[in-house]
Amino acid sequence: MRAIESCRTEQLGGHLEVCPDEACGFQRPAYNSCRNRHCPKCQSLAQARWVQQRLATIQPVHHFHVVFTLPAELRALARQNRCLIFKLLFEAASQTLLELGDDPARLGARLGLTAVLHTWTRKLEFHPHLHCIVTGGGLAPAGDRWLPLGRRYLFPVKVLGALFRGKFLAGLRRLRQLGQLDFSAHAARLADETAFKSLLDRLYQTNWVVYAKRPFAGSQHVFRYLGRYTHRVALSNQRIQHIDPTTVRFATKDGEAVSLPPEVFIRRFLEHVLPPGFTKIRHFGLYASRNVHSKLPMARACLAGEPSPCGVQLSTTVPKRLPWYELLQSLTGHDPRCCPRCGQMLLHRPLPRLPDVPDAFYRDTS
């Protein structure tokens, strides 16, 4: 929280940008950013770099967007066991998709997928769910051909939901047997073995929500769309409409807004701060790191001999990593190093950092 409050303020120091032309006289302070991954002001360039890297490896086929959601009954347990439950969510969802893809009765090929964890709703309520981008086809087991999927649907959502439910609850029971779950605070009532078993029995009888959206129009749009999910926090500054000592009002959707007392607003926002070092973006199947230099090139080679269904040419070159100012210029059309008045290159003069800010207390760039 202190990182976000101090970001790009005099507390973190910075430099003074001065135009060398005395007749111009332009100058402005540029304060350092906190670089915390939960800060709404520090992720734009990281997001742009991530999208650029992913576009170098994406398969030139249509992709499906699948969302796996945890039932409301598990949210209390998830609050007390964030790392374990979030990890289990990734495992159950990815295994569900890959297992159905490998099934010869459905596709019989290895899919590629990227999953991104979300923990919030538009009202900042705690709502863990996983966004998955899945290739519309896969690499045959022999590695000699690409097996496509139609555009109508990936797999039946009821089959996805049932398999996901079984894998997640089996993993949850295993964590209980190993004694790894924390049943304090919100999850205290589940410490009793009978109560825990009763919860699992109820969850086995309910339909778990798996939402499959229509496939994307082109492969170029896939990770540009997903980039909006990867490097964003629960709330952007643009959504905040009003702040006073008793109320914070922010936009939700469809023109509506929510007003909360400040302490409730801060508590809801901080609920979505991830555990230190937890990876919220993960790749599986063809997109997994172990397959980037083996199965993924094989799949691209299979597609190279056919016209791309999305009109995208295959690329084997890794994009050059641009300096931050060139990347910012490509996004905004303005060179941040030049004087906005006369266009000359700005000079930098250091500004001191306030002495009461300890070093590196705020950093979480993982």
Structure description:
- The model is unreliable at 307-316 and 361-366 (pLDDT under 50).
- The chain has 366 residues and is an alpha+beta fold.
- It has three domains: 1-41 and 333-366, no CATH class; 57-233 and 272-304, Replication Protein E1, Chain: A (3-Layer(aba) Sandwich); 235-269, no CATH class.
- It has helices at 2-6, 44-55, 75-80, 82-102, 157-177, 193-204, 219-230, 262-270, 295-304, 324-332, and strands at 14-18, 27-31, 63-69, 112-120, 126-135, 137-139, 146-148, 210-213, 240-244, 247-251, 257-260, 281-285, 347-351.
- The protein starts with a helix and ends in a 15-residue tail after the last strand.
- The strands form four sheets. A five-stranded antiparallel beta sheet has the order 8-3-5-4-12, with helices on both faces. The chain has a three-stranded antiparallel beta sheet with strand order 2-1-13, with no helix packed on it. Strands 9-10-11 form a three-stranded antiparallel beta sheet.
- The longest helix is centred in the first third of the chain and has 21 residues, at 82-102.
